[in-house]
Amino acid sequence: MTEKEKMLAGQSYDAWEPELLELRANAKKLCHQFNQLCPSEIEQRTNVLKALISPKGKCHIEANFFCDYGINIEVGDNFYANHNLVILDVCQVKIGNNVMFGPNVMLSTATHPLDAIARRTTEYGKPITIGDDVWLGGNVSILPGITIGDNAVIGAGSVVTKDIAGNGVFAGNPCKFIKALT
């Protein structure tokens, strides 16, 4: 199994392997290009996003945007992300349709061993899935392995440490159920 295959499978892998270094370098280059474009250069911004994350439909991300690989991010139709989105996509990140992110949202599939010696040479990840019609407020952090169900609203500043069922408002650190949506 290659290091990339291990990474995508959520197994421990060597992030400094040449293929992964090359893929990350390409994503960093595309993020840099995207972040340097004028907001009015909509066609060029869209083309860079298509090369980076291959959105499934209408997709608007404000600069600055950063990701590890891009190729592991699946974005549904009608996606909007405000400034300073960070997605650490060592495993798959699936974002549904009609999803909105506030500023400074961070999704991290990447994690590391607790053992200090193992942490020096390996890392691993767990996928993140976000359903349809989800709104993440500003400064929300989604940790590795999380699934957020359809029609969930995550309040600003929340840290999502456990799966969210959906159809409600959730907030806090750690993020918890606040109220149902009717």
UniProtKB/TrEMBL annotation:
It comes from the Bacteria. Residues 4-58 form the Maltose/galactoside acetyltransferase domain. Its EC number is 2.3.1.-. InterPro entries: Hexapep, Hexapep_transf_CS, LacA-like, Mac_dom, Trimer_LpxA-like_sf. Pfam families: Hexapep, Mac. The keyword Repeat applies. It is an enzyme of class 2 (transferase). Keywords: Acyltransferase, Repeat, Transferase. This is Acetyltransferase. It comes from Shewanella electrodiphila.
